[in-house]
Specification:
The protein has 22 helices and 11 strands. The chain is an alpha/beta fold and 482 residues long. The chain folds into 2 domains: 282 residues, 3-Layer(aba) Sandwich (Rossmann fold); 190 residues, N-(1-d-carboxylethyl)-l-norvaline Dehydrogenase, domain 2, CATH 1.10.1040.10. The strands form 3 sheets. It has a 5-stranded parallel sheet, sandwiched between helices. Strands 4-3-9 form a 3-stranded mixed sheet. The chain has a 3-stranded mixed sheet with strand order 8-10-11, covered by helices on one side. Strand 3 and strand 4 form a beta hairpin. Helix 6 packs across helix 7 and helix 10 crosses helix 17. The protein is globular and about 65 Å long. The protein starts with 27 loop residues before the first strand and ends with a helix. One of its GO terms (molecular function) is mannitol-1-phosphate 5-dehydrogenase activity. It is an enzyme of class 1 (oxidoreductase). Belongs to the mannitol dehydrogenase family.
């Protein structure tokens, strides 16, 4: 069977949308680090929409892969003329399929670092964006990360960024070169699920720059923009069944298609001195301040993901929709959202929080997405401090005891304890510390500095220890009924 590519587009079924712009003269205006499923189902899709109507011909994307594992994405895109399929999975089982072509170039840094620097210093590039996951940022006050403690940053700074290893090393090296040549700086746009992601990106870039040349860091602080964003679309990991579904429907092979839920949201702070695409025309919301929207999404959606991830696996479920089909788990997750997270929000005028929560449950229950609890629980040592701890801290500061949140942390601790015994696979950079400390409930709360606000709150500790005792004595079913 034919591989997806420009030659195969003419033979596709009429209900599959294809790029109309491939024969036009379009140029790269965005360089993106972290070309994974979320980027391809979100930012690249928005740019594809604008390219389709001819309003973003100077804003095509060049993807950058930094790691050896990124060679697989390089090969998939290069062999398919930069094309891939996006399948929106509707709850009735129907797929809405389109071919996306907005990633017009992909560079693998280990293969050709000179080409990466050339692309980043191209005057036509006015935005450098990131989806590198919560754990990819090297300077983050939320979890105490410091660039000076990152071995890759230390190594790239020691050689004066002659061979960058991190996205931030590449960004600083490119900004330094653009400054030297008199080329205006680009905007750095984080698209990660990180609270205040613009600020976190700024701190990471400036910290790396300061390790190399303090005056360069000062220039970046004064001249470079780091707008914050809020992004939202459930995008599972691609599995073999996704490849098979595309092959059966479209009669071609896509080596790495991406599936996503129909829902999408992108809130963008309007701070682009070098210019930007008309994101609003593509369906994004451009605002002066994203923080209130960001907090709603992070504390309800991302926090809700954490609420279901561990209790769901402990109860024997694999998929999110299966777990929330259990009325006890659904009630637990809703109680966390409504009782512990929602009261901490500063809600923009006209925003319907109860309606938003109902919409989240509708989205989570979509069986066509088949989102796994394992995916939601990945990298929890970074996610829980960002998505859950701030809400619990705010409830405690208000004189309230977040009892659902205490059960959430207790379920996470039990999950880590059982992972240490081999019942689950733990995908977390702090896996050893978490599994080792989980044998003792009190010690677990002290395992990570980012849990300190909880460990220092007697009311929370009491509720948490009570939940741990119930789990230990009666099992997870008992804590769901408490």
């Amino acid at each position: 069977m034919d591989r997806l590519g420009r030659a195969s587009l003419t033979s596709l079924p009429a209900d599959i949308a294809v790029p109309s712009y491939l024969d036009r003269e379009i140029s790269v205006g965005i360089v993106h680090f972290g070309v994974g499923n979320f980027h391809r189902a979100h930012q690249a899709m928005y740019i594809d929409r604008l390219l389709q109507v001819g309003t973003a011909d100077e804003w095509a994307i060049c993807g950058i892969g930094l790691f050896d594992r990124d060679a697989r994405m390089r090969d998939a895109l290069v062999e398919q003329d930069g094309l891939y399929t996006l399948a929106l999975r509707h709850p009735d089982g129907n797929d809405e399929i389109s071919v996306v072509g907005s990633i017009r170039r992909f560079l693998h840094a280990p293969d050709d670092p000179d080409a990466v620097l050339d692309q980043l210093t191209d005057p036509g590039v006015r935005i450098v964006s990131l989806t590198i996951t919560e754990g990819g940022y090297v300077e983050d006050a939320t979890d105490g990360k410091r660039a000076a403690d990152d071995p890759n940053v230390v190594a790239e700074a020691a050689n004066g960024l002659s061979a960058p290893l991190t996205a931030f090393g590449w960004i600083v090296a490119a900004l330094r070169e653009r400054r030297r040549r008199g080329i205006p700086p680009f905007t750095v746009l984080s698209c990660d699920n990180v609270p205040g992601n613009g600020t976190v990106a700024r701190r990471s870039v400036e910290a790396v720059a300061r390790m190399v040349a303090p005056e360069l860091a000062d220039w970046i602080a004064a001249e470079v923009s780091f707008p914050s964003t809020m992004v939202d679309r459930i995008t599972p990991v691609t599995v073999d069944a996704d490849v098979d579904r595309i092959r059966d429907r479209a009669a071609f092979v896509d080596a790495w298609p991406v599936a996503a839920e129909p829902f999408e949201q992108w809130i963008i702070e309007d701070d682009f001195p070098a210019g930007r695409p008309d994101f609003a025309a593509a369906g994004a919301t451009v605002v002066a301040d994203v923080h209130a929207y960001e907090a709603i999404k992070i504390r309800l959606l991302n926090g809700g993901h954490q609420a279901v991830a561990y209790i769901g696996q402990l109860a024997g479920y694999r998929y999110v929709h299966e777990a929330l089909g259990d009325p006890r788990i659904a009630a637990f997750v809703r109680s966390y959202m409504e009782q512990d997270a929602a009261p901490t929000l500063a809600v923009p005028e006209g925003f319907d929080v109860p309606g938003y929560i109902d919409e989240l449950f509708h989205r989570f229950a979509n069986p066509a997405i088949a989102d796994t609890l394992t995916r939601l629980g990945t990298d929890a040592s970074n996610r829980i401090p960002k998505f859950v701890v701030p809400a619990l801290r705010d409830r405690l500061a208000a004189g309230e005891t977040p009892r659902a949140g205490a059960r959430l942390i207790a379920s996470w601790r039990e999950f880590n304890r059982q992972a240490g015994a081999g019942a689950f696979t733990l995908d977390d950079e702090s896996a050893h510390v978490l599994m080792e400390s989980a044998a003792d409930p009190r010690r677990f709360l002290l395992a990570l500095p980012t849990l300190a606000p909880l460990a220092d709150a007697p009311a929370f500790v009491e509720a948490y220890l009570a939940a741990c005792r119930i789990i230990a004595q009666e099992g997870v079913d008992a804590v769901l009924g408490s």
